[in-house]
Design the sequence.
């Protein structure tokens, strides 16, 4: 179990496959602001709403010098279908089927629903500065208004 990451920590390195093919690594984003939002599952109501919000604000994030990456344990094929269904062409979704990155960022956690315990992604967002350090962390994210709050933080960074 990884320790909880906090503002000021060095962002854990990663390289993951992305929707549509290819890979994205932390090193390839050096010198850019990065929004990493971790979500449980493609095509569920909260995850869809969050993706639509971030996708709709992509131009504003770009103007603030920030790239947005959604990360879940779903496959790239699942991401491709999810993006096509909801017209999320502006988003880049990364697949962490091994859950190594999810664990490195401390978002793969024990959860509980109806008394049943299971492992899953805790909806969390990280804003990483151009220096590769975590500037801000949002834990247990509530979707309404979240993308806007992240955008304001990205502008201020």
Sequence:
């Amino acid at each position: 179990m990884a320790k909880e990451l906090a503002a000021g920590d060095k962002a854990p390195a990663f390289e993951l496959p992305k929707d549509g093919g290819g890979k994205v690594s932390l090193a390839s984003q050096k010198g850019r602001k990065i929004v990493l939002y971790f979500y449980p599952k493609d095509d569920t109501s909260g995850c869809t709403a969050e993706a639509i919000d971030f996708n709709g604000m992509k131009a504003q994030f770009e103007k603030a010098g920030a790239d947005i990456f959604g990360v879940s344990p779903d496959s790239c094929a699942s991401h491709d279908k999810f993006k096509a269904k909801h017209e999320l062409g502006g988003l880049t979704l990364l697949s962490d089927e091994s859950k190594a990155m999810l664990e490195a960022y401390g978002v793969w956690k024990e959860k509980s629903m109806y008394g049943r315990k299971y492992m899953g992604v805790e909806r969390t967002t990280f804003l990483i500065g151009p220096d590769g350090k975590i500037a801000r962390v949002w834990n247990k994210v509530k979707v309404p208004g979240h993308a806007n709050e992240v955008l304001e933080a990205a502008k201020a960074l």
